[in-house]
Design a protein that fits this description.
By secondary structure, the chain is mainly alpha-helical. Helices cover about 70% and strands about 10% of the residues. Strands 1-2 form a two-stranded antiparallel ribbon. The protein starts with a helix and ends in an 8-residue tail after the last helix. The model has no long low-confidence stretch (mean pLDDT about 85).
Length: about 130
């Protein structure tokens, strides 16, 4: 994880100069330009900076959307893996309890975990049911 200080430093070193460059670009390119919407009969008159930055924004949104759609299979596999890990953690907790009860039965002592109700005995501390 990137620390908060490093994120703040990156914002000031990269984000602020980039924002300043975009602002200067917009101020320097305010002249209107006609945009033909072929095959439609309409034309729009927009500032040049709006056309350029709008095209970049549309491309960015298209790329993010396609990446998100493309990673749907990975997200589904990750959810299934998390479910499987929870099941296996429950099995491990159950098997540990069985091992403790078997060991206590052999030695004749009563362990505190063997006296727990079944719902509590299947979970280790910190596990989410």
């Amino acid at each position: 994880m990137i620390s908060r200080l490093l994120r703040r430093l990156l914002f000031w070193l990269i984000g602020v100069p980039f924002g300043l460059a975009v602002t200067l670009f917009a101020v320097a390119n305010r002249q209107p330009v006609d945009v033909g919407l072929w095959p439609l009969p309409w034309t729009l008159q927009l500032p040049l900076y709006l056309q350029v930055l709008g095209g970049v924004a549309v491309g960015l949104l298209a790329g993010v959307s396609l990446s998100w759609i493309g990673s749907a299979g990975l997200r589904a596999r990750a959810r299934a893996s998390r479910r499987r890990v929870r099941e296996l953690e429950r099995d491990v907790a159950r098997l540990r309890l069985q091992q403790q009860t078997a060991a206590s039965a052999e030695s004749g002592t009563d362990t505190p975990s063997s006296r727990l109700p079944a719902e509590q005995a299947t979970l280790l501390p910190g596990m989410i049911s």
